[in-house]
Amino acid sequence: MLFSRGDLLSIHILMECLQEFKDVSSLAGNTSKSSIFTREIENNEFHGILARTDFDRGGMPVWYLGIPLAVQRLSVSDYSPLVDQIANCIPKWAAKSLSFAGRLELIYSVIQGVECFWLQIFPLPAAVVEKIHRLCRNFLWNSRRALVAWEEICHPKEEGGLGIRHIQSWNVALFARILWNIHRKADTLWVQ
Fold first, then answer.
1. What highest taxon heads this organism's lineage (predicted)?
2. Residue 14: inside a domain, yes or no?
């Protein structure tokens, strides 16, 4: 990702730097995989920038490392890749004759790993949390009627639950950790 001001001079300097990089390293950016994202630039200025770069105009949200980057709050539909990723795993596992413990372990290790990646970055809307809970619940109970309420299953093992993390509680905890790191000025690049 490269950032610059939205004027022709800044774009000219940026393109010169990219050309210098290409000359020195023999590596070039792929213009068909590159896009320009702007805010509040007049159309004639923007068309001049597009002509200078040969890049396409990109739309929001931008997907980077499997995560949407957006200026505003994400809508429920923006979380569909997360829900779809979880939903696509389950039929593959359901085809195998897994025990209850095997299904529980897949929820612990795979599904919660996938969702944790998103939980560290975004507050998940209640509708998305409910979809994920429903997918996990149906998978765990093999699409049969649940014998124990999902809220009970999400309790720690010491309290009689199965130790599955409750998504909303985990989301709050991860954001609290971020705030704590900022407060104590943790020695990480993103805090600096």
1. Eukaryota
2. yes
